Amino acid sequence: MDKNSNAVTVLYYDQNDMTSICTDVLTNLDIEADKRVIFPKSYRDDKIIIAVLDGQCHVRNSLGDRSIFS
User: Considering only Cβ atoms within 10 Å of each terminal Cβ, which end of the chain, N or C, has fewer?
Assistant: First the structure.
């Protein structure tokens, strides 16, 4: 796998407000041989990372959100 990733989407809880899931799209991160993404420590501070997804993703709704049906 390449040393740099095109993009990953990170799902996380902010430790100071764990009422909803937050998302960030990050690019050009280092990736280990076992395909784990390396986040800078400064990024990990105050976050509980729950998932790392390949590519840029949009979360339509998450636990506690209500879907709007048409």
Answer: C
